[in-house]
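Give me the fold.
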Amino acid sequence: MKYYLIAGEASGDLHASHLMAALKKRDHQAEFRFFGGDMMAAQGGQLIKHYRELAYMGFIPVISHLPTILNNIRKCKKDISLFNPDVVILVDYPGFNMKIAQYVKTRLSIPVYYYISPKIWAWKEYRIKSVKRYVDRMYSILPFEVEFYKKHGYEIEYVGNPSVDEVSAYQSLPKEPVSSFQKRNQLSDKPIIALLAGSRKQEIEANLNHMLSVVDLFPDFQFVIAGAPGIDESFYQAQIKNESCRIVFGQTYPLLQQSTAALVTSGTATLETALFDVPQIVCYSFSMPPVLYRILRPLIKVPFISLVNLIAGKEVCKELLGFMITRERLQTELNEIIYNREARNQMLQGYAEMKNRLGGPGAPERAAESLINSLKR
């Protein structure tokens, strides 16, 4: 069969690549064409547009790049029409993908499947109407989403979480000694605090400065940044300035495996950090006055922003949002998860409960099997 996939960021590229691998095991004639990234390209098929040319977030960047975004949408629609796939598989990235879903469903009558639901349960809940109208099947990777969609009269399938597969696969490999990791990356022998500041430039600019503000307060530790795919080292160096901090690229999992604690921007990284049992503080900065935040906060439909807390259904790790991210608050919370054994153990227990709710590995395989069976029917 012919599959057209669309992933608009690094995490989507990773998860979609594993879904493609699972599809190939079951469909030896699988033919792929996609908007995505290097990991999807490694599975074969034709990469039409790299996600680096798609990933814009925030009102100003979107407006300033609107002609490019609209051109990408037009190009994607035309390419799908010419390829005429058996199915279009959308991976998160709702602003772009829901426009494609509408076109494909109404103009081309091609089945539309969604792998990794857009986070409409957090904001823009009105998008459920478009999902019900234009998406034939939804494969969820977060267990709490099932009840949300059921409430709206739309059945979805929870297939497990691909981060469980990815972390489990990595942890099955022989563990590199910490001394080897430090030497290979020209690090000192101090224990490591990992900084995961996001995958987009806007996220990194908003969050990394806050994280770096506490570097000098913890002289017994070294702070190491997990460099995001597609972001040049010079971009990070401009943020670091005079701080004593190093960057490693393409080594997020090895870095987490060797870390004592982490400061993490909300997203898949919070979940991955928990799967590695690394105590963390979730930091999410945004430019908004406290008064305006208190007015707008009720519009957000969920009590937490980190996946760890949302899956666990309670506060497992501390979330510092917007104006709450101060040097003093970061110091206090970081001291807790580094030196307070009871606080560390409590967080690790919360991680264990979260892992139990997620279930075991096998998400891409379950999604691929269900997807192919559905298409055959």
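The mean pLDDT is 91.
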